[in-house]
Amino acid sequence: MPVDADGFPVTRSPAGVVRSAASVRDLAVLDARISGCRACPRLVAWREEVARVKRASFRDEEYWGRPVPGLGPADARIAVVGLAPAAHGGNRTGRVFTGDRSGDWIFAALWRAGLANQPTSTHIGDGLELTGVRVAASVRCAPPDNAPTPQERNTCNPWLARELALLPDLRVVVVLGGFGWTALWPVLAAAGYRPPRPRPKFGHGIEVALAGLHGPLTLLGSYHVSQQNTFTGRLTEPMLDAVLSRATELAGFPPPP
């Protein structure tokens, strides 16, 4: 497999994503392959333009400008799945949900739930550690207007399917937003789980029980931690805390002190 100037394996087509994801046996290799993906020309052009032009407040920083891999240990019992990296958040910092208001919300909530050692995530190397949870996005590149196309979502699906399949202790998936909810059903099927028919509609607090190769799995729906939701009060901290509290309960973790 060819590598780019930074040593990341390069994948250039949807078929290549399928092949590359299927052959991965551990999360570190998966993260490297995700980081070198160039399978969606529109997203590649956008993420790299943002990284080159930059926002004025970050003009002295070097942007990541690549697909953003997941974060969290291989023994995670909970996965949190969002939409896509923000142009000046994950696309800048190289860490999922890091460097923007959405990250401020989700990592503070993970800390309150006892799943993170600190309530903030500002940059790689800031000391953040997650326990029992893996955080990822449905689409790994920052999209224009925060809106990936269905084709881009489908191209990226094999990365997430393989990521979930590499979590043998996974018991709960918290899905942030309707886009992630829609994207997750084919991902779960590819990861060895049996989705119900008809597929349940997304809603905040909804629970769906599944069966799969590694045992039972529960999906929990939550409104996305976007500024549109948090600024308007559609999603509040108690609402998000309740979903994560339920996730830790289902995963068998003790309640935080």
Features:
10% strand; DNA repair; five-stranded mixed sheet; 5 strands; 257 residues; 9 helices; Uracil-DNA Glycosylase, subunit E; globular; alpha/beta
Which secondary structure elements does this structure contain, and how are they paired or packed?
Elements (H helix, E strand, L loop, with lengths): L13 H9 L4 H9 L5 H13 L24 E5 L7 H4 L7 H12 L20 E5 L12 H16 L6 E5 L1 H13 L16 E4 L6 E6 L4 H6 L4 H15 L6
Parallel strand pairs: 1-2, 1-3, 3-5
Antiparallel strand pairs: 4-5
Helix pairs in contact: 1-6, 5-9, 6-7
Please tell me about this protein's structure.
The protein has helices at 14-22, 27-35, 41-53, 90-93, 101-112, 150-165, 178-190, 227-232, 237-251, and strands spanning 78-82, 133-137, 172-176, 207-210, 217-222. It starts with 13 loop residues before the first helix and ends in a 6-residue tail after the last helix. The protein has a five-stranded mixed sheet with strand order 2-1-3-5-4, sandwiched between helices. The protein is built from nine helices and five strands; from the N terminus they run αααβααβαβαββαα. It has one domain (68-251): 3-Layer(aba) Sandwich (Uracil-DNA Glycosylase, subunit E), CATH 3.40.470.10. It is an alpha/beta fold. It comes from Blastococcus colisei. This is Type-5 uracil-DNA glycosylase.
